[in-house]
């Protein structure tokens, strides 16, 4: 039971997303993909991001007990009774991830991993989450560092495409998370967390989501404008962007939980589609397409 509870503290689904984002950054700049390096990168990012996730639950254990979505977390139910042990666990995970990144790659990868964990653990969780509705906007930078870390694992001097991808990931986070916030608005209201739909309502939040996604889709075209990617990426990213904007517009017209759920679920498909398009554009030989 203890082992399972500690695994639950790690929020592995979020850690998986962070690790895959780092792998996308790696594949975007690597001349050839080294499977072993990808495995090590995945492990380092998973450990580091899990450390910040454990810290998030350590710090938020008071308000987690107020929300049905989080009331069964280990530090709330008592399956992990010693909060200090959880804090040590968080530190061990983060340090382990940073050390693996440093020894296997370079100090830039380790630094980006640390900065991503710091933004999520302290800037978002401690400083902004309970204070201001912009919490998820600024906190979204945490995921962007994963892309930069992945690219730095290949060559820290290659920065343009990874930076553009990091901007896209940064802008993706509010559109993704605000849709979720509409779904669980009552939870946040009960805990006194000032998420955008709590303080402004679902209709206003839907308009913010649409405006943010416009900026997001525009940012996804920056690699084309700077000559970093080609027509394969353009076609795929345009298709996903058009679909996302259409769903956002439907949410503006009908700001209900059912439409918000569709936006939330597709937001993950959008990010996966755009980052997959980067990898395909970089590594799929044109001969495979009959060209």
Plain-language structure description:
This protein is mostly helical. The protein folds into two domains: 155 residues, UbiA prenyltransferase (Tetracycline Repressor, domain 2), CATH 1.10.357.140; 126 residues, Up-down Bundle (Four Helix Bundle (Hemerythrin (Met), subunit A)), CATH 1.20.120. Helix content is 79%, strand content 0%. It has 16 helices and no strands. Helix 9 runs antiparallel to helix 10. The longest helix is centred in the last third of the chain and has 27 residues. The C terminus is likely disordered.
List keywords for this structure.
single chain; 291 residues; mainly alpha; Tetracycline Repressor, domain 2; Four Helix Bundle (Hemerythrin (Met), subunit A); 2 domains; disordered C terminus
Question: What's a quick, concise take on this entry?
Answer:
By secondary structure, the chain is mainly alpha-helical. It is built from 16 helices and no strands.
How does the helix and strand content classify structurally? mainly alpha
Strand content: under 5%
Enter the CATH topology name of the largest domain: Tetracycline Repressor, domain 2
Any low-confidence stretches, pLDDT <50, length ≥5? 287-291
Query: What's the count of strands?
Result: 0
Arithmetic mean of pLDDT: 93
Q: Looking at the structure, what is the overall shape?
A: flat
Q: How many whole angstroms does the radius of gyration measure? A: 19 Å
The tally of helices reads: 16
The CATH class label of the largest domain is Mainly Alpha
The CATH architecture term of the largest domain is Orthogonal Bundle
The CATH superfamily label of the largest domain reads UbiA prenyltransferase
Helix content: over 70%
Largest sheet: none
